[in-house]
Every structure is written in structure tokens, then in C-alpha cells.
Amino acid sequence: MPVYVIIDISVMDQGLYEEYVARVPAVVEQYSGRYLARGGEVVSLAGGWQPERIVVLEFESIDQAQEYLTSPENLALAELREKSITARAIIVPGYEYDL
Questions:
Q1: Environment class of 1 (CB within 10 Å of its CB; exposed 0-12, middle 13-18, buried 19+)
Q2: Residues in Cβ contact with 28 at an 8 Å cutoff, skipping those fewer than 6 apart
Q3: What is the pTM for the complete model shown?
Q4: Is the CB of residue 37 less than 8 Å from the CB of residue 54?
Q5: What is d(CA 75, CA 81) in angstroms, rounded to the nearest whole number?
Q6: Of 9, 50, 62, 89, which alpha carbon lies 20 to 30 A from 42's?
Q7: pLDDT at 71
């Protein structure tokens, strides 16, 4: 069953963030992830949640998502990520339909 990594991002340093954004897709792809949403306008619907930027990644399994998150390639980008953004992230399982 697919899982989704949902990240709520606030940019602190646009220049460093642009460098991170240029480098991270190759790592996501290397671990068979794919982007479902990557920025764009966010419309708040309820609860006062006003995220600046949302990223949604899809992976085939929670193990695959965790492999990406803890990979040497992703960890190598950690300093750049931590200097450029603040973020909150979750992993959510996909919904399995009864067929």
C-alpha cells in the first residue's frame, strides 16, 4: 500500500532553499518516490492552518519512505535543509479500497 510523506514548509532563506530544491528531487527519485504536490498556492479550508508551502511525496511502502528519509543522500542535504527552512512532516498510509 502506498504511503505519503506530507511536509509543511516555511522558508527562512530563499537562496539556500532554491539550492536544496534543485538537489533533492534526484534523491527522492533514487528511492522510488514521486512528487504529488510541490508548492503552489495553498488554500486554507479550516482550523486556521496557513501553511506557506506543502510538499506531498508518494512511496510504495512505509519502509521505502523511511529508507529515503534516513538515506545517506538525504542526510547529506540535512544541513542545507535545516538552514533554509523550518518544517513539520508526517507519513500517512494510503487508503485501501475494498474491491
A1: exposed
A2: 34, 35, 57, 68
A3: 0.91
A4: yes
A5: 10
A6: 62
A7: 97
